[in-house]
Amino acid sequence: MNSERWIFSVEVNEKASAEIGFFTWDITDNTLYADAALAELFGLEADDTSNGLPIEAYLKRVHPEDRPRLAKTIRDSIVADRPQQETYRVCNKLGRYTLVTGYGRGFRKRNGDTVKYVGVVVPAQTIGPVPNFH
What mean pLDDT do residues 100-126 have? Predict the structure, then answer.
């Protein structure tokens, strides 16, 4: 994506709720578990995602231009112990990129170690460029 900022919309209705992908990443053993909707978005097999895959298997499906930004957003979210939101492109089984928005956050043990990261990924709709209010 170029440096131009865009507005994205996520509408959650009955149809969209079937497309929302849920995931849980066990950080300590690097296994990310996901439902069939997330598998579909990422072009992966639902049996594989429900049994867990390394996070790298999911990141490989993210557009190469978006991958570093997404990885940094997730890392920053874990380090800062705050929720994240990121819009990026992901490759489906047909080899086409779909725009999605992911929401996630980490959870820590009492000792401060982040051990779980959970979230959802939702198909995003492009609305248009962000207006310049200056």
Answer: 93
Residues 6+ apart with CB under 8 A from 78: 27, 106, 114, 117
Instruction: Single out the residue of 88, 85, 33 nearest to residue 63, CA to CA.
Output: 88
pLDDT interval class at 19 (50, 70, 90): confident
124 three-class SS? coil
In-domain check, residue 98: yes
The total domain count for the chain is 1
Cβ pair 98, 111 in contact under 8 A: no
Would 1 be classed as within a structural domain? Answer: no
**pTM for this model (two decimals):** 0.80
Kindly state whether residue 13 falls inside one of the protein's structural domains: yes
